[in-house]
Amino acid sequence: MSxxxxxxxxxxxxxxxxxxxxxxxxGVAPVVLRELVPTPEAxxxxxxxxxxxxxxxxxxxxxxxIAGLYPGVGPAQVLVTVGAAEANALCVATLxxxxxxxxxxxxxxxxxxxxxxxxxxxxxxxxLVESDGWRPDLDELERVVRPDTRLIAVSNPNNPTGxxxxxxxxxxxxxxxxxVGAWVLADEVYRGSxxxxxxxxxxxxxxxDRLVVTNSLSKAYGLSGLRxxxxxxxxxxxxxxxxxxxxxxxxxxxxxxxxxxIALSEPCRSELFRRNRAFIREGWARLQAWVESTDxxxxxxxxxxxxxxxxxxxxxxxxxxxxxxxxxxxxxxxVGAHFGVEHHLRVTHGLVAEYMEPALExxxxxxxxxxxx
Length: 373
Description:
Distance between the termini: 42 Å
Number of helices: 13
CATH class of the largest domain: Alpha Beta
Strand order of the largest sheet: 2-9-8-7-6-3-4-5
Shape: globular
CATH architecture of the largest domain: 3-Layer(aba) Sandwich
Radius of gyration: 20 Å
Largest sheet: 8 strands, mixed
Structural class: alpha/beta
Helix content: 40-55%
Strand content: 15-25%
CATH superfamily of the largest domain: Type I PLP-dependent aspartate aminotransferase-like (Major domain)
């Protein structure tokens, strides 16, 4: 059987431990454990957790907390997974079959596209348009969707551009899906990472019946090391995913579930968002100043959310070649081609200044050398 590797994750797996500066990651500066368990009582409660198997689909208390993030959703409509990666994988495995037609939004995190192709599906794309400020080309969506389209997948806010779909854009995407009876998969891992406002991006839950959403503690929460995500949707579909979850992972970690309950409870959840939005806003200002210092060699559209910037560079070189040059200079970045767009690089900026500033200095040196030929 043919198999398409996940190029973005392969790139990071090969090189992220070998460079002094990793800007290819997709979140903010990570939370340390003492921020989640800051009191002697919290530490003691953590130490009292037994290390037996947890509830396979997630503890009742954790699923109740997650369900509370979505209108009209109960705990039975939530499955706790090993990160959003497993959640997305379960969605593809459950909702598609070989020969199905799948449509994805690009540039994007290409896990769903790759898994669908590896599952024998036919995959097409509709695009965010850079010249329109990374707005989606919904006329293109109308053209590529077919009567046999089984699944339409979006990330909102988007990885790598940070664009947030407007209510009108969401309504039109859902109307297209309803016309052909397609499922919609909404990856919402960047809800809570908004750049210029403190209100969360609205979820798509409640706007369409054939809808599943995925999320995790990795991006907006700064807790990627917990490897805890979830999927929410109609109960029968979630139950079908639960059966596949038992084959793939059995469950996520009991310690991760304990810490996730802390993270998703108030006031901790709001405090994590405040912390991480501060990193995002300060980091963007730092990166924007660097972009302006390149005299047009590098440009960027301000993201509406995420700690990511999708940088365009003015060099007649493919993105993989530029990324390798930066890697040899000590900085790992995301390769534009791995998101479906050339002459771009994805850079995370939600990091401490002491880490980010020397990384940008190295990038300046590499770009200067590339421009000089």
